[in-house]
Design a protein that fits this description.
The complex is a heterodimer of chains A (about 325) and B (about 625).
Chain A: H1 2-33, H2 43-53, E1 56-59, H3 64-83, H4 98-118, H5 122-153, H6 158-167, H7 169-172, H8 175-191, H9 210-213, H10 219-244, H11 255-282, H12 291-312
Helix pairs in contact in A: 1-3, 1-10, 1-11, 2-10, 3-4, 3-10, 4-5, 5-8, 5-12, 8-10, 8-12, 10-11
Chain B: H1 2-24, E1 30-33, E2 42-45, H2 48-71, H3 76-91, H4 98-116, H5 123-154, H6 159-165, H7 171-189, H8 198-204, H9 207-232, H10 238-261, H11 265-292, H12 296-331, H13 342-345, H14 347-360, H15 367-380, H16 388-420, H17 427-430, H18 437-455, H19 457-472, E3 485-487, E4 492-494, H20 496-516, E5 523-526, H21 544-554, H22 556-559, E6 564-569, E7 577-583, H23 589-610, H24 617-634
Antiparallel strand pairs in B: 1-2, 3-4, 6-7
The chains are: A mainly alpha (about 325), B mainly alpha (about 625).
Chain lengths: ~325, ~625
Amino acid sequence: MTADVILAVIQVLVVTAGAPLLVGALRTLKARLVGRRGPRVLQPYANLAKLLRKEAVVSTTTSWIFRVTPYVLFSTMVAAALIVPLLLARPVLDFAGLVLLMYLFVLGTFFLALAGLDAGSAFGGMGSSREVAVAALAEPTIMVAILALALRAETTNLGAIVERFARDPLLAANPGHLLAFSALFIVMLAETGRLPVDNPATHLELTMIHEAMVLEYSGHYLALVEWAAAMKLFLFMTLLANLFVPWGMPAAAAPLTILLGLLVLAAKLAVLTVGLALLETAMAKLRLFRVPELLAGSFALALLSVLSVFLLR
Amino acid sequence: MAGLLYALTAAAGVAGAGVGVAGMLGITWTVRVDGVVPLGGLELTMDPLAGFFLAVIGVCTAAASLYAVGAGGETHYDIGAYLAFVGALGVVPLAANAMTFLVAWEIMSLASWMLVLDRRDDVEVRRAAWVYAVMTHAGLACLLAGMLLLGAHTGSLRFADWSAAAPALSPGLRNAVWLLLALGFAGKAGVIPLHVWLPLAHPAAPSHVSALMSGVMIKLGVYGLVRAGFEWLGPAPPAWGVVILLAGAVSAVVGVLYALVDHDLKRLLAFCSIENVGIILIGVGGAMLFRHAGLEALALLALVAALYHTVNHAMFKALLFLGAGAVVHGTGTRNMEAMGGLIKRMPWTAGCFLLGSMAIAGLPPLNGFVSEWLTFQALLQNIRLEEPALNLVFVLAIAALALTAGLAAACFVKAFGITFLALPRGDAAARAHDATPAMRLGMLVFAAACVLLGLGPTVVVPALGRVAGPVVGATPATWGGAATLSISESFARLSTLAIAAALVVGVAVPFAALALTGVSRRRRLYETWGCGRMLQTARMEYTATAFADPFKRVFRFFYRPQAQLQLDVHPESRFFVRRMAYTNPARSLFEDWLYRPVLAALLAIVARVQRLQSGSATAYLTYIFVALLVLLVLR
């Protein structure tokens, strides 16, 4: 019990502390790739500290929904941090499955979209409407990709999936498995507001999705919202890394193995971060109404992955 | 007087719920009174499935009647219809022979039809009631034909005799009877494309009646489908399961798509009922397919998921209809585009409506999440069926269910956000008043049910397992421990309590940390940022139409919207617009492509047949003479 609590605290701390670093590394890398010097890697920490020191301006139009949302959003990411296999193959809440994780993300999106409407500005409503549209259209891909994983691993339990694939490398090298990875990778781009779905670096009203929705936030509220967004990216990338490259994760909890798990995780995330930076540098943002086509493509990939199981059994 | 009757109805609802729960726990009984109904007499039998539906009806009736005490303004006539409606609702699941069932079913339909005619001076309401009457009687005709056909071939009108005799019937007859019964029950359940009455009739009724119609009446259609598909007609062939599964998937997606673009608060909820019946039927259809393949444990899981969603939908949909009723009560309009900012004027209603929205959107740890999760887990195990074609059907159902869940979340962001948040869009919304205490109490009962059903799946699922077990013929299953629900051995596990605890800690720790360090005190109130404009008005807000626009574009092949922009420009320069009107209505695929052609064909036939009715007595005498001759010759 005590060990579980300690592990839970460590997992949440790794996600909360690691998320800004991931975002910083990604930004620096992208800047270097286009020939700029870019901010230093630790800049997101400084941004968060600055936001926490600043005064928050709250619109008089808003209700308690607006003030509660940053906390709810943050808490969904904390709960998700206990669900994703992070350092060990078994996550802290070992009943946790993929379906639950996706619904937790929807919970955060739901409240954030409400907060976007709460201030009564057209920007917020526009962002909310677009965000929920993208999230809703990504949903079928997620579930069918989950089905593809569940069919091969014979469970939807995250810890069990990781253990199953780690035991059986041939299962993970299956082409259908790679298709499911591609599908979930595209979903990650959509869900975390990355290029080519949304551009996290812009404040141009015609293209904004996530940034429009959170436009009214400032001070510590904005700090929580941005932190949660970084945690979502961190969790999604961790999930992809550990579901599809499940090797090197220690099975039992001990101080040394946790350290080992951390190193392995860092190495996997570094590779994925470089990949994401390359992709974002090479791609332009899609027009909003081309995004459904991208998501339909990812759905087709997930469907192929599932069909390959049925046909190859 | 009316208040007293409503209070007594609430008490009767509590009693009915108690009897129903006792039935679920195995206290079964039979009552038989000869002569009250023709062809077999009144016969009521309690079994676990009937007990489950009676319990749901009882709880809904109790809370809706409490709400009605506070809503007031009903005529004596309406309360008579209300009592008949509630009574018939309770009798339908208990009925043990065809005539008892059909009489109760028809009283239920007629009483609800009278309640739909609540504001009968409105031409729209009269049209709604007309469509409802036609559709419900078409359904009744199907049920009557199916049941009499089955009765004629089995020699009995008792349901218990049917299940014994049905396997010996010819497949053609069984298919025909099932189709008739399925059409009748699906029409009542609001399955696409038999749904046309539902979005008209449900909003027209008073809100506590809407709550009962959406919460429990359409569930009795599901009840009939379960009885017909699992018990009355013996083992179901896979085709029936596929039909139910696909009808459920289509209803789920189409229902939520219509709900997304509808801006009448109560009609949005009615469309959403179609969606949720679809989700329930996905579970029912899955259970039929699993059972046919001999996978009783999976069939049990799928049916438990369907029943769980049945009770969940009854709770959150009734809550939402009561919330919508309070909004209509407080503002005098159902049009979301005229609302806004109600969270400040109606905090109780807003809180309840938010909880209902979260539950219906399937957000953890509330009840809608649990039943959708169970449905997903049942569908995800379809690999155990060894038929690729059936597997494909399941994959489509999974994708449809996932899309439905995403769109439902979007729909209720719109429903809650546009109605309750930001600035009021009209005077009525600005002067709104909150619900009366009795109305609040009715809503709070449902809200509490949503939370408890969300946090207690480890109690609810085994109870539903005992209800569904005899239906699918499964041996009792194990469902994990007191804290964690565990299904299909280790396929998936869930503990909503742990999730709720994690979420509470996740909110409390940052909140406490920011409060203790004084960070969260540094706050200033100011107006919304608006690019330098002088004054923020409600006209700058995003509207429900604008919110739904991305969906209208993405699914334009389905909505086929007709955007119309009317500009009234200044005579001297077209760049100065004096007035503009924009409409972008979605068209109903089903009315355009199904009902209109059928109606047109019907009218054409009627026009031909009409010539026989010349009005001349000699012609009629000739008809009679010819008919007599024909009969004599044939003899």
